[in-house]
Amino acid sequence: MASGSSSSSKSEQQLLEKLEAPQQMLNDDDDDDDDYSSKQMKHIALVVIGIVVVMSKPMGMIWAVVKPKRPVYAIEYGLISNATVPSSLESLIGNFRFVMRSYNLNTKTTIYYDSMKILSLEKKPGYDDIFQYLQHGNVSSNISVGAEIRYGIANWKSSPLRIGIYCQPANVMLERNFQPADCYVDL
């Protein structure tokens, strides 16, 4: 009986090995697929990094040559003449004259202005009405400029860029000049 039971355990063991063999082969194939997909992901990541490095070199070289700087704006002259107050007492009518200078610090680029919109004259806090402005001889004015510009290098022009220029506050004198005011540039 001992020989019969040992032969049956051997046959059972062989049967188990035959059943486990296909399962083992499936597990080995899954490991190969995991290795293949992780290798593929590593290659894709290396290619993407390579493209970024290759594309950033020319951009860095252009930046090094051009060295872009923001333009500087300042209101150098402001005058209100022939000032009158309408019956509503909420506004001031007159000839408003401003001279705004632009300084392009980029020696290798040109700035082209496509359009420009200028807004002016906000009421100064603490003044009750427009007559207070007139009595003090100056008007506090926030001057804002919105423009579309293009940068140009040789024959190349950039796509339009919006620029905001804010000069706050500029104290404009009645019938005489005022102190220059620097402006903040939002590019």
Task: Set down the secondary structure blueprint.
Blueprint (H helix, E strand, L loop, with lengths): L1 H65 L5 E13 L8 E11 L6 E10 L10 H7 L1 E16 L2 E2 L3 E14 L6 E2 L1 E3 L1
Parallel strand pairs: 1-6
Antiparallel strand pairs: 1-2, 1-7, 3-4, 4-5, 4-6, 6-8
Keywords: Membrane, Transmembrane, Transmembrane helix
Protein name: Late embryogenesis abundant protein LEA-2 subgroup domain-containing protein
- SSE succession: HEEEHEEEEE
Instruction: Specify the overall morphology.
Output: elongated
Q: List the total number of helices.
A: 2
Q: How far do the termini sit from each other?
A: 96 Å
- Main sheet makeup: 8 strands, mixed
- Global Rg: 38 Å
Unreliable runs: none
Mean of pLDDT: 76
Estimated share of beta-strand residues? 35-45%
Structural class: alpha+beta
The strand count comes to: 8
Fraction of residues in helix: 25-40%
Biased composition (Low complexity): 1-14
Keywords: Membrane, Transmembrane, Transmembrane helix
Region (Disordered): 1-37
Transmembrane segments: 44-66
